[in-house]
Fold this sequence. Notes:
By secondary structure, this protein is an alpha+beta fold. It is built from twelve helices and eight strands. The strands form two sheets. Strands 3-4-2-1-5 form a five-stranded mixed β-sheet, sandwiched between helices. A hairpin with a 2-residue loop joins strand 3 and strand 4. The longest helix has 27 residues, at 118-144.
Amino acid sequence: xxxxxxxxxxxxxxxxxxxxxxxxxxxxxxxxxxxxxxxxxxxxxxxxxxxxxxxxxxxxxxxxxxxxxxxxxxxxxxxxxxxxxxxxxxxxxxxxxxxxxxxxxxxxxxxxxxxxxxxxxxxxxxxxxxxxxxxxxxxxxxxxxxxxxxxxxxxxxxxxxxxxxxxxxxxxxxxxxxxxxxxxxxxxxxxxxxxxxxxxxxxxxxxxxxxxxxxxxxxxxxxxxxxxxxxxxxxxxxxxxxxxxxxxxxxxxxxxxxxxxxxxxxxxxxxxxxxxxxxxxxxxxxxxxxxx
Length: 292
């Protein structure tokens, strides 16, 4: 469909740099719909070529039909897909009607998600593992401090990321309703979710039990889920600084989690840390770099 026709659907004029668009309409009693459709008749996801365009929302009305248009750059949409932290964008991309895709970019993205293999699978598993580990550690610190509700909230989110790992390892892209996916797989993580949420034991006992299981899960998943990081570290002879790793396109979204992952991998002797005098380093001691 030409851009002029897309303009009629959304009630606004698109710039020339639009790469494609997806329309998501209200469809009655469907099992799961994007929250972006709330009180709107249609959502239009508009893909741009600008690298720095993160998220622009516009509201339009034509007659009695209200449309919410979400404008996003290609790189930002790719990051959202891999990070799994914006279910609404993913739902719109995968279930909406492609109304403009002159270069086939949207169809290629859909196909890659459905096939879910290679670099995409590797990146999703590493991101989910990093967040799983981070939230496990936060929950452990909260329970030690007697902050049981905060510990509960963190370990519940840790289980969510563990569930996404389980789905990924089974060869499927984690959907927004990931617990329904995991439930059908009859995995231990779903049993832990039930243990945490409906058990008759005290809140503290439930959290501590699940934390023990999370610790085992982290150890068992570490090597496979960190393949992306191992490949990056092995991509050159020189060791990497934390700054260089955080500037890498595959790791830049993990500013809070990556340092913890590195320390855990070092402690398990899966990677090595070396010290050196780095150019421009003015602090006391030596700079730490990481390698295999």
